[in-house]
Design goal:
This protein has four helices and five strands. The chain has 144 residues and is an alpha+beta fold. It starts with a strand and ends in a 16-residue tail after the last helix.
Length: 144
């Protein structure tokens, strides 16, 4: 089942978030995780999380946000973070989370869904390539 995150999901989310950060070898300050969770729970924030639940256990998440675009008349949906617990991989949860976002974006009238991943994330790219070929863009990130 795919559903919105609720306040009751905080501990399950934090556990998965920790696994996600470890996968990407990122060490975030606890305050950043706390701020992220607060954004996810804030009804006025465009940042939201959809959760994949199997037998009552949260096994994955898709954090997304919508925003205006200069390239289309409506909004775009950015899939910022997608993660499925190692123990739950191979069950189609990543695909289910993406399909759910596609349906959500269409229902909201958003024009596009986009995401990025590391070039060497071959397992994720095998899934992503089934949806759309890479458009060749390279990301640049300037820390301020």
């Amino acid at each position: 089942m795919i559903r919105d995150a609720t306040p009751a999901d905080e501990s399950a989310f934090r556990a998965l978030w920790g696994q996600y950060l470890a996968f990407y070898q990122v060490d975030l300050a606890p305050a950043v995780t706390t701020a992220t969770w607060a954004r996810l729970m804030n009804p006025t924030s465009p940042v939201k999380a959809r959760l994949a639940e199997v037998e009552g256990q949260v096994q994955g998440f898709a954090i997304h946000l919508h925003h205006p675009s200069t390239w289309v008349a409506t909004e775009d949906c950015y899939l910022e973070d997608l993660y499925v617990a190692e123990s739950a991989r191979g069950q189609g949860l990543g695909r289910a989370l993406i399909d759910d976002l596609i349906s959500l974006a269409r229902a909201k009238g958003w024009a596009r869904l986009y995401w990025h991943t590391n070039a060497d994330n071959t397992r994720a790219r095998a899934l992503y390539d089934q949806y759309v070929a890479s458009d060749g863009h390279i990301r640049y990130r300037l820390r301020l």
